[in-house]
Structures are given as C-alpha cells and as structure tokens.
Amino acid sequence: MNNDLKNGEGKLPSDNTEQIKDKNDETLLARNDESNTIESSEQKDNVTEKKSETDVTDDQKDKNSKYSSPDKKGHGSEVKSKEKRKKVKTDELGREIVTKSVSTMYSVTMAVVYIVFVLIASGVCSYFAITIANDLFAFQKAEVTSEVSLGEFVTVSELADILGEEGIIKYPTVFKYYARLKQEPGDFQPGKYTVSSSLNYDSLLAFFKRQSSERVILTLTIPEGFTVDEIIDLFVSNGMGTKEGFVDAIQNGDYSDYKFIQLLEKQEISKDRKYRLEGYLFPDTYEFYQDWSESRIIRTLLDGFDAKFDDAYYDAIEQSDMTLDEYIILASMIESEAKYSTDFEIVSSVFHNRLNSKGKFPYLESDATIQYVFETHKNEITPDDLKIDTPYNTYLYEGLPPGAICNPGSTAILTAIQPGKSNYYYFVSRSNGEMLYASTKSEHEKNIAEIKAEK
Predict the structure, then answer these.
(1) Rounded distance, CA 420 to CA 291, Å?
(2) What is the per-residue burial (b if ≥16 Cβ within 10 Å, else e) of 95-122?
(3) Which of these, 260, 241, 259, 336, lies nearest to 298 by C-alpha position?
(4) What global pTM score does this model have?
(5) What architecture is the 98-209 domain classified under in CATH?
C-alpha cells in the first residue's frame, strides 16, 4: 500500500475524501459545542468572584464564531443570528449600568441654572445702573428739602456724607468719585443752606459756592513788626470779621497740623502770655476773600510762617539750647528795637551776650518789651514806665518775656538764630533810628547823653 501511494496509484477517491472532511467537521463542531458548554459553566460559577473574569473578550468571541460559522448543511444557525455586540458597563451581577439619561438631565439642569443666574445678575445690574444714574442726573427723584449747615474747610467727602444723611443724595460714594473725576477742589463756603434733592450732582457742587465775581477780594499787607492787636484792627477796618472772633481764633483755634504749633504746645505756655499765636502770624502781602471767617484768615497767616520757616531753621534749633518759641520771642524783640535790618545782627548779638552772661546781666533791659504793654504806642519810655510790674518788663523780670511782642519777619528770625559777633552789651537809638552800641555801662551812659544833647 505504501508503494502504491508513493507511485501515485494509491490516491483516495474524491467521494471518500469529502466524507472524511464532513466527519472531521462534525467532530470539530462537537468539540467546540462541548468547549463552549464547559466555558459557560465556568463563567457562571465565577460570576460572583471578579467582574473581569465574567467578560468575554472580543478576540475570544471572534475565535468561537470562526468555528461556529454555518456550512451547507445549516450547522451554526444560532451563531449566524448573533452579531457583534457593543461593550456596555455592568455591575458585579452583570447588569447593565445606564448613564446616558442621567448625564443629559444634569446638563439641561445646569444650562437652566446658568440662564436664570444671568437673568438675575442682569436685572440687578440694570436696577443699580438706573438708580445711580437717576441720583447723578436727578431725572425722577422724590422731592426732599433739608437745611444743611457747613462749617469751615468742609471737604468733598464730608459734604457727600452730609447730603447722604439728609437724604439729598442716595449714593455718597458715587458723589465722591464723581467730584474726584471732575477734579472738584472743594472750596465750599461755610453757612446754612436750604437744599433740594431735585438738584443733580453738578448743581449740588456749585450750590455750596458763590461765584468769585460776587465775592470781594482784598489784598492786604501785614507789615513786619505788627502786633496781634494791630493785625486784628487792620482786618476789622477792612470789613473782615470781628475783634472777638479773631481773639477766639488766635487763642482757641486748632492749628495742630503745623509743626511749629506742635512744638509750641509741647512746652508749657506761660499764663502771662498775652496772645498764644503772637510771633507766628507771618507778615507779608496776602489776598483774602472779604467774607472769610476769622479762623480761615489766621490760618492763611500761619501758612505764610510755615512756608518761610523751612527745615534749615528746625535743624539749627535742634542743635541749640533754646526752643523755637524762645527764638521767635527774641526775633520779635530784635524786630521792635531796630529800625533798620542792617542793625539786626548786632542787636541780636547784644541780647545773646546778655543771655550767655546771666550772672552779670540778668536783665535784658529792652524798652520794646515795656512798649508792648501799652494799648497805644508811646514815643518815649519814661523812668516811671520802667517800674511797671509786668512779666513783659525786662527791667524787672529776668530773661525773655513770656511771649513774643510782635510778629517778626524772615530777617529778624534768621538773625535771632544766627546772631552777629560782638562784645557789646548795650545799645541805644537816635530819633532817626541809628543805633549806638557800647561794651560797658559808662560807654552806654555817654551814648545816652550824646543823644539827649542832640534834642
């Protein structure tokens, strides 16, 4: 038989071959069915152990379908009806988990919430925009009338708060920002006003002012050496304030924002001092509104002092053994004693020499300090005047007087801080203002006799 096969004569007939193939196919199908049955049993047994072991992979399904494909005799008809299934999420028991409808519902809900939020936000913004615009332009506002009283130096911020409290405006903060945008200086006039809420912001800002054309502007010069009383008389004679108002502003006004006033108030001010601010009302030429209050006028003069008294003066005083007020008192004495500024340095040196030699010269002996006591100026100080018992009498009281005796200018202040150098301890002046100096008492008496002989 083997030889027949080798020689090609032992070939099997085609019918027998087909029968053998059919039997093989049937055997394979039977084995596959048996294998599938075993696998299904194992999968059911393991379904509660792990989810990963219950899933059949796509490759396994493809492999099974390959052997279960139908042939001419109709084998695998059940496999033919099965199509590739989509992979779905299942729980531990193999049940499908449905998420599509929940996800869709969540998206719709969020969209509705967003739309509602946008509508509410738009409505709120629109409401505030309309009400702020109505407050700004006074389109339709409930009529409110109120009495408003403004004090000195009211700022825009303070005015806004006042109008808000009185119900004239609804949004004080908006009023402040609007005034800032308009660069409003806030030069409001003190007084009582009847104001209505029907005014818009521009009208309100203008309402508390008077047009400059309606106000009288005065240009006044405060001479060097003027006393507080002389300054008050100058203002009152020009229709500005009252004497009582100026005295109150000078004695009781709050000017603690100035450094020199802070230094003044740190020390103990003598009860014998006539005017608290004597010496600090700087002499110069100023422009005033005639209707300004007394305190505002006084503040203008203090501004003048603050502008002239720079850091160099403060530095020099810090290195000295004298206080700022003591220098101002001394400067006022120099200003009052010397007629010409060319004598300021020497007159200052005389006073400094005496202050530095208190054992030998305890008294400054200045006629000008006695002159300050009199309500009207005296052309000559008499021997009786030298006996007047007052702390301002430097013939009877040692050292400096309790306060300045006038308001000195820049030169007198500078020479008080930086005196000239001399050996003089005395001076006397001629009627024309010329000064005669002496180092000894006898020399001084000769100078006095010389002047008397000239009369």
Answers:
(1) 44
(2) eeeeeeeeeeeeeeeeeeeeeeeeeeee
(3) 241
(4) 0.59
(5) 2-Layer Sandwich (3.30)
Per-residue pLDDT at 90: 64
For CATH 3.30.1490.480, the residue range(s) in the chain are 98-209
Question: Residue 231's pLDDT is what?
Answer: 98
Per-residue pLDDT, 94: 66
Whether 160 contacts 176, CB under 8 Å? yes
The closest of 450, 445, 418, 422 to 434, measured between CA atoms, is 450
Whole-number Å distance between alpha carbons of 148 and 154: 12
pLDDT value of position 98: 54
99-110 per-position pLDDT tens digit: 555 578 877 888
* Predicted confidence (pLDDT) at residue 59 exceeds the cutoff of 60: no
Query: Token digits for 228?
Result: 């507080």
Identify the residue whose tokens are 């087909």: 18
Distance CA 44, CA 359 (A): 126
Q: Which residue has the tokens 């903060």?
A: 173
Closest by Cα among 344, 335, 360 to 425: 360
Q: Can you list the pairs that 43-51 forms with residues at least 24 positions away whose Cβ atoms lie under 8 Å? A: 47/93, 47/94, 48/92, 51/90, 51/92
pLDDT in tens, 342-384: 999 999 999 999 999 999 999 999 999 999 999 888 888 999 9
